[in-house]
């Protein structure tokens, strides 16, 4: 119990230090960040403009769906073609497919760990 209390005190001290740093340097950082990226700021920067841009983004993504759908089926046709000609596969192609499968599994595991709050067991201590 004492170990947990000392960890809590350390976390509080670090949080206070981070808050002081942000309070001291936050405005200057914000100013330089906005100056560097002013070409991305919509004029005038109002709530209405943000809502308009949000709507544009939504419908632009919606408009891209047919192209994505077509690309998906082209890739599926390539996979079907490779499966039909699997006798012609060489070690390199099999290795690339295996590495791809391992990478997918690793991303799945990482997503599970992140989803559980960066715990390996899923339980909070």
TrEMBL record:
One of its GO terms (molecular function) is proton transmembrane transporter activity. GO terms for cellular component: mitochondrial membrane; proton-transporting ATP synthase complex. One of its GO terms (biological process) is proton motive force-driven ATP synthesis. Keywords: ATP synthesis, CF(0), Hydrogen ion transport, Ion transport, Membrane, Mitochondrion, Transport. It holds the Pfam family ATP-synt_G. It is found in: Mitochondrion membrane. PANTHER family: ATP SYNTHASE SUBUNIT. Belongs to the ATPase g subunit family. This is Uncharacterized protein. It comes from Oryza brachyantha. The gene is LOC102720604.
